[in-house]
């Protein structure tokens, strides 16, 4: 599933591809089996409106118009791309918008866990009121995060993936971040020291920014909007490396367990509980 770096990269691609003030002229459905049904009356509201901005909140892509906002979540395999009129439609193309420049903006999703919805811009804060802090924001309150995390009995790996506390960090990056700071994913948050949290927040920013720089992580399906794979997976230390020798030459072997339904990877020597 795309995490913050991959969604941020797609946003940057789309800003390059679709100029501000581009208008939606028309839309077409090709399949109706996405995660949620998209009301036609909502899509109709976007016809003729000039695009004002493309932004990101957590793992959501936001297409901003004057009164409305088109929200896209990529799920596990969703992607957006530009096509010319009459393109060869793919099996998993679900929705396309005809743009004022003559191109078509196409949403494809093989596993259909993604979704698209339209909201009024006035409802933005209400729609995302339960989302946590943005780890890449310059003014993010990491001391406040430390205070919140320090009261939790949950394992630190699970807490890092809790989108109500901190957004955008998923399974891959949580495992990698904790390895780099030498903190076991099994440790309860309440047992982690303030100095360790400082290291976790610093490494969270560094890891996410490094992944963006390398084009994100392609494990199976992820491609950016130009169809290019990411390269950050080549820098993984623990994710997907169960049974391999630890990169730090500590003599340990990478282990894997399931936490909250997701696979966690760590070195029990470098990351003692």
UniProtKB/TrEMBL annotation:
Listed Gene3D superfamilies: 1.10.8.50, MutM-like, N-terminal
CDD domains: EcFpg-like_N
InterPro entries associated with the record: DNA_glyclase_Znf_dom_DNA_BS, FPG_cat, FPG_Glyclase, FPG_N, H2TH_FPG, Ribosomal_uS13-like_H2TH, Znf_DNA_glyclase/AP_lyase, Znf_FPG/IleRS
Highest rank taxon of the organism: Bacteria
GO biological process, one term: base-excision repair
The UniProt record lists the keyword DNA damage: yes
Keyword Lyase in annotation: yes
Enzyme class: lyase
Swiss-Prot/TrEMBL keywords: DNA damage, DNA repair, DNA-binding, Glycosidase, Hydrolase, Lyase, Metal-binding, Multifunctional enzyme, Zinc, Zinc-finger
Residue ranges annotated for the FPG-type domain, each copy included: 237-272
EC number: 4.2.99.18
Reactions this protein catalyses: 2'-deoxyribonucleotide-(2'-deoxyribose 5'-phosphate)-2'-deoxyribonucleotide-DNA = a 3'-end 2'-deoxyribonucleotide-(2,3-dehydro-2,3-deoxyribose 5'-phosphate)-DNA + a 5'-end 5'-phospho-2'-deoxyribonucleoside-DNA + H(+)
Molecular function GO terms recorded: class I DNA-(apurinic or apyrimidinic site) endonuclease activity; damaged DNA binding; oxidized purine nucleobase lesion DNA N-glycosylase activity; oxidized pyrimidine nucleobase lesion DNA N-glycosylase activity; zinc ion binding
Positions of the Formamidopyrimidine-DNA glycosylase catalytic domain: 2-114
Cofactor(s) named in the record: Zn(2+)
Assigned protein family: Belongs to the FPG family.
Subunit structure: Monomer.
Name this protein carries in UniProt: Formamidopyrimidine-DNA glycosylase
